[in-house]
Design brief:
The chain is mainly β. It is built from two helices and nine strands; from the N terminus they run H-E-E-E-H-E-E-E-E-E-E.
């Protein structure tokens, strides 16, 4: 179990993917995403979703991002957040807002 205080420390934001590139240095299929988080600026996020989504499906779309994770190196690139996805029997689906909302909007 997680306390409400612990949960409240996670900064969930709406991010808009503005650029998708292949991560050439990764061992498994990954993308390097440039994500607009509004007032928090642009972030680089490395995501292992290349086998699931085409670049065209991602560019311009909104996603949910954990915005306050410590940056982490992934195969030579610093990832500055994590996108949220759900998995069911090997099928992975991105968590996305159901309506258009500004990048950086806080999720409560």
């Amino acid at each position: 179990m997680v306390s409400i205080e612990e949960f409240g420390s996670i900064d969930l934001r709406v991010g808009r993917i503005i650029e998708v590139k292949d991560h050439e240095g990764a061992r498994k299929p990954m993308y390097v995403l440039k994500v607009d988080l509004g007032e928090l600026g642009l972030r680089t996020i490395v995501a292992g979703i290349k086998d699931i989504y085409k670049k065209e499906e991602l560019e311009g779309t909104s996603i949910v991002v954990v915005a306050n994770l410590d940056p982490k190196g992934v195969a030579g690139i610093t990832s500055e957040g994590m996108l949220l996805a759900a998995e069911d029997n090997g099928q992975v689906v991105l968590i996305r807002p159901d309506k258009d909302i500004a990048p950086g909007s806080r999720i409560h």
